[in-house]
Amino acid sequence: MGVDRRIVLQNAQLFASRGQFDAAIAEWKKLTAESPTDGSIYNTIGDLHLKRNASSEAIAAYLQAASAFRAEGAPVKAIAAYKKVLKVDPKRYEIYRHLGDLNAERGLLSSAVADYLTLGKFYLREGKAREALEVYRTIANQDPTNFDARQRVAELCLQQNLHDEAIQVYLQLGRERSAQHRLDEARDAYLAVLRVDPGNPEAEQFIRMLSEAPSGSPRPAPAEPARGSAASKAQDSPNLLGEAVRRINDGQYAGAEAILSQMLSHEPGNPEVCQLLAKLHLKRGDLAVALNEYRFLAGAAMRAQDYTLAESLIGEYLKVDPACVALLELRGDMYEKKGDGEAAAIQYGKALEVVLEHPEPGMPTLPAELYAKIKMLAPTSPVVSRFTSLFESAQATQAPQEVTPRPAPVRPSKPAQIVPPHPAPEPFVADAPKEQERAPLSTVKTAAEPDERQKPSEQDYETHYTLGVAYKDMGLLEEAIEELSLAAKGTECALDAYIMLAACLKEQGVNRAAISYLEQALADPRCEGEKAVTARYELGILYEAEGRFDNALRILETIPTFQDVPQRIEWMKSTGQFERPTSTDPRQSGNDPVTAAPGKPKAAGDQPDRKKRRISYL
To answer: What is the pLDDT of residues 151-197, one digit of tens each?
Structure first.
């Protein structure tokens, strides 16, 4: 016979209120037998362990909670649980791998890179070069434009005697730096190759060309024909390219690769040669190598808005590997950038079909994210109807914020600082969290350092709001305040962010700052109905707690039948703890957003309206 959940919860709350935490934990554990995948149960058990100063047991419970949340497709809650682990033991650096993976799944590349960098630097400091190499490989795979991570990969490969991999990474860095006319950095990469492979022809040729280049030349000058027949042949690029193409078509891959490598030694970064090398690897069956090359080349074409070239490259790879989710998504992204939502939805739909048949390891939320993106881009498309029955029933039982389209990378959060809304009785600044350690970066901007001119989108603000709500639900108030403060800078979710900020600050006992946020919320014309009534009630309670009884009475009288408002009004009037405002008080004009009538208030027993965005009141 199963346990009675209601009785178990009553007993657990009773034991906890008496300080009998072991008994309360025993009650909660009864629920794990029937609901072993309920992350909220393990989260509560962890909180109770903390109250009895059992850190190890608390961490174990939080890790169980995180695993359960990930399994049920709630990555934001999983992130909050992992943050709790770090709050108990900041030295649990392996947690940053989980955080990086979760942020990567949600499409928050900058946050993912920041987490991976923290872990990578820890491994380097501890002398764990092999583990550090895996982390930096992950960063390089997630963000091929992160040159610092790729250079770190090459350095660590040398430490592990993986010379061939190090040479290939340095050569690719040299080609790309040269193509970008960053000749000093290209020179450093090729010199690194020569230290490992002194006879490498491509590196030797580049260094020689660089030393012979005229002063002020924008790129290395070609070698003189007299220097050798190979150099002379390299001058005839069209003929060599044609020969390489012929050999690729005939399956003579080794000969074609030799020609293309020789051409790159004369003109590092030549896009035509790089594309032919990618094609060669694809035809030879080196799909892992080819995929990285095609992603890089297609991404570069998209950044240059050369969508014709990008389409050609993506299509070329998909002819060989039509079930490649990464390039199907990239093609969808390309159409999205071109403003063709219908075409983008079709490509995302193809990616979704593949993921449903062959789930991506470690990415349980990807199907729902793809479906949400399809629905957002083309809600009336037949692609949506194909998956509606599969996803809509699941979404009906899931909190709305858990299934959202993957947002674009956002700027990393700065230390938490609350800017009080105007007017604010007293400014309030939250304690800034300690800045995470980061691996040293060069002058090249990585994904963790986006262009300052990039303005966050409303979807970015919504992402901060969702994470802030999850942090609050998990008891991480400082983290919640940091995220909600960012969300409050947006437009669509600013009102709810103000209300949630007030709730967090009230729990911290910072009533004056909470009051200022509720006043700002009530000044918003969108604050109406049940939301306005509840905000007025909480503002009245806060006024009362601060001894501002005249303010409390004035606002509570606008909702005279709500919950225990009649008793509160009667108490304040009977004790004389206030002065009634005179008729000349400008706040009685009816134009003040705090005291203006909100419409018919709901009685205590009325059912609240259901809102699309979930917010928790104070």
So the answer is: 899 999 998 899 999 998 898 888 877 766 778 888 888 899 999 89
Other C-beta atoms within 10 Å of 156: how many? 25
Residue 99 near residue 114 (C-beta atoms within 8 A): no
Q: Give 503-564 as a DSSP string.
A: HHHHHHT-HHHHHHHHHHHHTSTT--HHHHHHHHHHHHHHHHHTT-HHHHHHHHTTSTTSTT
Contacts of 155 (CB under 8 A, 6+ apart): 166
Percent of the chain with pLDDT over 90: 10
Q: Contact at 8 Å (CB) between 208 and 224?
A: no
Domain ranges of the chain: 322-409, 458-589
Q: What is the pLDDT of residues 557-566, one digit of tens each?
A: 888 888 888 8
Q: Under 8 Å CB-to-CB from 365, ≥6 apart: which residues?
A: 73, 75, 105, 106, 403
Instruction: DSSP for 293-321, please give it.
Output: HHHHHHHHHHHTT-HHHHHHHHHHHHHH-
Whole-model pTM: value is 0.50
Please count the other Cβ atoms lying within 10 Å of the Cβ belonging to residue 491. Answer: 8
The Cα 162–Cα 157 span in angstroms is 5
DSSP strands (E only) in 383-437: none
pLDDT band at 242 (very low <50, low <70, confident <90, very high): confident
State the residue for tokens 């998209």.
Answer: 302
pLDDT in tens, 114-143: 899 999 999 988 889 999 999 998 988 888
| 63 in Cβ contact with 85 (< 8 Å) | yes
Beta-carbon contacts of residue 599 (< 8 Å; ≥ 6 apart): 528, 529, 532
Domain at 458-589, CATH class: mainly alpha
Cβ-based burial of 429 (10 A; exposed 0-12, middle 13-18, buried ≥19): exposed
- Cα separations in angstroms, 18 against 23, 78, 351: 10, 30, 54
Compute the Cα dihedral for 105, 109, 115, 119 and give only its sign: positive
User: What's the rounded Cα separation, in Å, for the pair 260 and 272?
Assistant: 10
pLDDT over threshold 70, residue 410: no
